[in-house]
Amino acid sequence: MRVPNANFSATARRTGILSAVAVVVLLAIYAVTLIAGLISLKSPGDPIGDPMFTILEIVIIAVMPAMVVLMSAVHAWAPPSEQPLTLVALIFMGLLAGLTCSVHFVILTLGRHPAFAGESWLPLFLSFKWPSVVYALDILGWDFFFAMSMLFAAPAFGGTRLTAFIRWLMIAGGAFSVAGLSGVATGDMQLRNIGIIGYVPLFLITSALLAVLFYRDVPE
User: Fold this and answer.
1) CA distances from 175 to 9, 21, 104, 161 (A)
2) Pick the residue with more confidence: 9 or 124?
3) Core-most of 84, 115, 184, 202, by most CB within 10 Å?
4) How many CB atoms lie within 10 A of CB 131?
5) DSSP letters along the chain, please?
6) CB neighbourhood size of 43 (10 A)
7) Over the stretch 12-37, which tens digit does the pLDDT of each residue have?
8) What DSSP letter does each residue of 22-84 carry, written as one string?
9) What pLDDT score was predicted for residue 131?
């Protein structure tokens, strides 16, 4: 299969394949852990407890570098006419990575630190129970930055059945993620969970198909 960008190098192809596989594996671990955590809840409004919560935090931090590298490969693969859009998509993915890694690293390291234990303001800053500062930042990252990354990257794909499928998956993933903002608008975090469809199962499938695409597109 002929690649759309003559500058799509062997290095970009290799890193694209490896990062896509890493995203698929890590998101699969995240999905299984998330389902187990949700099943364990006594009430839908309760936060997920340990050990599932800690596993989820670690996986989120681990997957972000792979997602940035994957989007850089998408930018390298894209036709030159679409690269202004994929560059924006890469920037939004970088914003997501910086924000979400900061949020979840703070939660892991300070959320249960003795110096913060018992402070009355703690739930308003370092908890994933609405409303809280870190929860709001997490929503900004995943329901806005991630959505924008998908929607700006989508136009680069098309022309074959595989690339058209990737395009529509990205559009759907971005749309579901944006829909998660309805949870903030209404104060109902059950609605926010709509966004999970966009950045877990749909992005997992998208990443798997990107790995297939990069595997097939061998630079000349």
Assistant:
1) 31, 24, 24, 21
2) 9
3) 202
4) 12
5) ---S-TT--HHHHHHHHHHHHHHHHHHHHHHHHHHHHHHT-SSTTSPP-TTHHHHHHHHHHHHHHHHHHHHHHHHHHS-GGGHHHHHHHHHHHHHHHHHHHHHHHHHHHHTT-TTTTT-TTHHHHS-SSSS-HHHHHHHHIIIIIHHHHHHHHGGG--SSHHHHHHHHHHHHHHHHHHHTTHHHHHT-HHHHTHHHHIIIIIHHHHHHHHHHHHHH----
6) 5
7) 999 999 999 999 999 999 999 988 88
8) HHHHHHHHHHHHHHHHHHT-SSTTSPP-TTHHHHHHHHHHHHHHHHHHHHHHHHHHS-GGGHH
9) 84
* Residue 5 backbone zone (phi > 0: left; psi -120 to 50: alpha; other: beta): beta
Backbone angles phi, psi at 134, to 5 degrees: -65, -30
Instruction: State both tokens at 40.
Output: 């364990």
How far is residue 57 from each of residues 23, 46, 125, 132, 202, measured CA to CA in Å?
15, 17, 16, 17, 20
Q: Which two tokens stand for residue 83?
A: 């690269």
Q: Which two three-digit tokens encode residue 51?
A: 């050990």
- Whole-angstrom Cα distance, residue 147 to residue 175? 7
pTM over 0.70: yes
Place of tokens 């690339």: 163
Indicate if the pLDDT at residue 101 is higher than 90: yes
How far is it, in rounded angstroms, from Cα 198 to Cα 89?
16
